[in-house]
Amino acid sequence: NLCLLMDTVIVTGGTGLVGSAIKNVYQKNYKNYKFYFLSSKDCDLTNFEETKKLFQKIKPNYVIHLAANVGGLFKNLQQKVQMYEDNTLINLNVLKCCHILKVKKCVSCLSTCIFPDKTSYPINESMLHNGPPHSSNDAYAYAKRMLEIHSKAYNEQYNDNFVCIIPTNIYGPYDNYNLQDSHVIPGLIHKCYLAKKENKSFYVWGSGKPLRQFIFSEDLAELILWTLFEIDEKESIILSVKEEKSIKEVAEIIAKEFDCKIEFDTDKSDGQYKKTADNSKFVDLYAKSKGEYKFTDINVGIKKTIEWFKKNYDTCRK
Ligand code: NAP
Ligand code: GFB
Predict the structure, then answer these.
(1) Which atom of ligand 2 is nearest to the CA of 269?
(2) Is the dihedral of CA 312, 165, 219, 73 positive or negative?
(3) I need a labelling partner for 104 at 20 to 30 A (CA). Which of 9, 61, 177, 278 fits?
(4) Could you please report the per-residue DSSP string of 182-230?
């Protein structure tokens, strides 16, 4: 039947922040593909035999590789061994199976936090290996950098079609809101929600001075699908908004939504001061392909995320 004729797409990490966003947007333009959104319950991707069995069962034509052991600054500081081992195993097994199944294309995910710490700004794709990453997440960063090296090795030696995208800090519904392990925006939303409920101060960790570029998960989802299906670029592409916000500015947007007072806990680490990424390669490629991409305004994105969090407080990851 028709199902047998449809191209299949495996989305590893399909139940996470980015995977869920892809699930919410893909039918707009790609409803005649059969998507499989995998979670660790479908298969533990750190296990090669399990991964190979699942790939041979689904026989994907395309793979969007998102699965990873992911966390914010504090999780990266505390769990370097797991961040290195889990991500190295997951990435190796997924790419190896993409090769064995000869998929038409695999798009894998790096991160702007894996760039060299001592660098000029803005950072572009060619600078990825020009020096060690920030010590706070060096284990995770090196595991991710090897994903690009590994992808290119398969392309050079076997003419595979494995490309990497480099997203900046992502936020949105279906994120991990755990107070210790989460990224900053979900962490601040959860903390502000509790502060409001318990009528306590809303503590932002660090000075609030560091700068970040934040991309709304559904925007990134659209750009990942565009990278997979609409362009033939072989080199890595940074997918990021242009403007930077300070942690303080973002905390103020959240505090305003909850009508909360902000305090700063300056004993906590600031992590990297900034990691300004240059998105001009993406802007140029997108202009040639579709025109100008309109990113979701951060005030709108945070409002949508807070509404989702409040509605799903009992069941979300926290
Ligand atoms: P996330 O919300 O933590 O989701 C992680 C996904 O990976 C989940 O679906 C999880 O499945 C799956 N996973 C984890 N370990 C697995 C294993 N051993 N076997 C199978 N599946 C496993 O992550 P995310 O924020 O969506 O991140 C997606 C990608 O974007 C990652 O590659 C990450 O490095 C990259 N990225 C994220 C950010 C950010 O700010 N979030 C920034 C830059 C890059 P379960 O739900 O079953 O655990
Ligand atoms: O998202 P985040 O944890 O990771 O942001 P990074 C950390 C920044 O937000 C630091 C401040 O300046 C923190 O001091 N911050 C303030 C908070 N309050 C909080 C809070 O409640 N929770 C958190 N988490 N931060 C990550 C990398 O760096 O970037 C990961 O470690 C990942 O590998 C991610 O790739 C994209 O942006 O500093």
Answers:
(1) 14
(2) positive
(3) 278
(4) S-HHHHHHHHHHHHHHTT--EEEES-S--EE-EEEHHHHHHHHHHHHHT
Buried b (16+ CB within 10 A) or exposed e, 49-80: eebbebbeebebbbbbbbbbbbbbbbbbeebb
Rounded CA-CA distance 178/220 in Å is: 22
140 is an active site residue:
yes
CB of 307 within 8 A of CB of 190?
no
For residues 213 and 122, give the distance between their C-alpha atoms in angstroms, rounded to a whole number: 12
Question: What confidence category does residue 5 fall into, taking pLDDT thresholds of 50, 70 and 90?
Answer: confident
What pairs with residue 36 in β-bridges? Answer: 10
Closest CA to 15 of 309, 217, 311: 217
pLDDT in tens, 260-316: 999 999 999 999 999 999 999 999 999 999 999 999 999 999 999 999 999 999 999
Phi first, then psi, for residue 149 (nearest 5°) are -60, -45
Regarding pTM above 0.70, the answer is: yes
Neighbours of 234 (CB within 10 A): 12
Ligand closest to Cα of 42 equals: 1
Question: Does the Cβ of 84 fall within 6 Å of ligand 2?
Answer: no
Strands (E), the chain: 7-12, 33-37, 62-65, 105-109, 162-167, 169-171, 202-205, 211-212, 214-216, 237-239, 245-246, 262-265
- Per DSSP, the three-state class of 232 is coil
What digits encode the pLDDT tens for the residues 162-188? Answer: 999 999 999 999 999 999 999 999 999
Pocket lined around ligand 1, Cβ cut-off 6 Å: 13-19, 39-41, 44-46, 66-70, 86, 90, 109, 111, 167, 169-170, 176, 183
3-state secondary structure of 19: helix
Nearest CA to ligand 2 atom 9: 184
